[in-house]
Every structure is written in C-alpha cells, then in structure tokens.
Amino acid sequence: MSQGVRPARLVEVGGKDVTVRIATAECTISMTSEAVAALVAGTPKGDPLEAAKVAGLMAAKRTPDLLPFCHPIALTGASVVLEPDSAAGVIRVEATVKATDRTGVEMEALTAAAVAALSLYDTAKAFDRSAEIGGLHLVHKSGGKSGDYQRPTETL
User: Fold this and answer.
1) What's the pTM value of the predicted model, to 2 decimals?
2) Which residues are catalytic?
3) Nearest to 112 by CA among 54, 65, 47, 69
4) pLDDT digit string (tens) for 1-28?
5) How many CB atoms lie within 10 A of CB 144?
6) In terms of Cα–Cα distance, which of 9, 66, 128 is closest to 120?
7) Dihedral (CA of 28, 29, 35, 38) sign
8) What's 146's DSSP letter?
9) What's the CA dihedral at 134, 50, 107, 90 to 10 degrees?
10) Which CATH code is given to the segment(s) 19-145?
C-alpha cells in the first residue's frame, strides 16, 4: 500500500449524538417546452412525474447501497417535489429527507433528487434526446455537530 493512502472504511459514528437531521437538495432537468408538456400530460406508460417521485423516494432509502461511505440510516420521512415549467422547458426537482440518527441525510437528499431527475430523463428521451440534468446541489441541512447550512441565495 502506498504511503498516505488509507483503506476505505466507514467512519465511526457510534459516539455521535442522535439528533433530528433534515436535508434538502435540488436539481433541474431542461428539455424542449413540448417535452415538458408531454411529461406533464402523461404517457401511455403512465404519469412520469409520479414515477419520478417514487424513484426519488426509493433512491433515498437505497443510498448506502450506491455510495460506499454512506451509513444505513433509518429515515423518518422523505418527499420529492417537482415543479414543471413548460414555457421555460425545465422541471425543478426538490428532495427533502429526514432522520433521527447519528449522521446526516445530505447524500440521501442529493441521491433522491438525482434519481428523480434520471427517471424524468428516461421518459423525456422519447421526446427530446438532448434533455439535460444540471445544478444538483444541497439547499439546506440541519442537525448534527456541524449545525445548520443554508446555500447562499444566488444573485443575478
């Protein structure tokens, strides 16, 4: 093993306080106005917006299976909100995840938002193969030793 390289491991969190942890993440998926309208209207497969919400919720629960340094956390709640804007050709995806645990839920919120957007892309590609997912970021988090975080408001 090279000097300075540490083996992969889960960080010990057993000594941390159990606190309420909340995190919100968001991203957007951009596509043609017509593609957004088609997703909002629904497809022969069903409602892609509802499918994306379910995919995001499932992803939040499965985050430790996808990311090797994430601890399994007993989530106490999660939500995925989609805000389609057909005129702008964009759907905003927001995921909020809650737990009462020893470690945060930021990665669960980020994963939920990303997978919800991927689910939307899966349907949107039938209408617009140039659809693009972007801007994935943490909006807010609370709880734990590091305290609260609020992403600064961007000024134009």
Assistant:
1) 0.92
2) 122
3) 54
4) 567 788 887 777 877 888 899 999 999 9
5) 20
6) 128
7) negative
8) T
9) 20
10) 3.30.70.640
Tell whether the model's pLDDT for residue 48 goes beyond 80: yes
Residue 117: partners with Cβ closer than 8 Å, 6 or more residues away: 27, 28, 29, 52, 91, 93, 133, 136
Q: pLDDT tens digits for 132-147?
A: 999 999 999 999 888 8
Q: Note the residue count of the chain.
A: 156
Q: Which residue carries 């005129």 as its tokens?
A: 87
| Unique residue bearing structure tokens 């969190």 | 13
Distance from the first to the final alpha carbon of the chain: 48
Domain boundaries, the chain: 19-145
Q: Flag the least confident range among 8-12, 34-38, 110-114.
A: 8-12
* DSSP-based three-state secondary structure for 69: coil
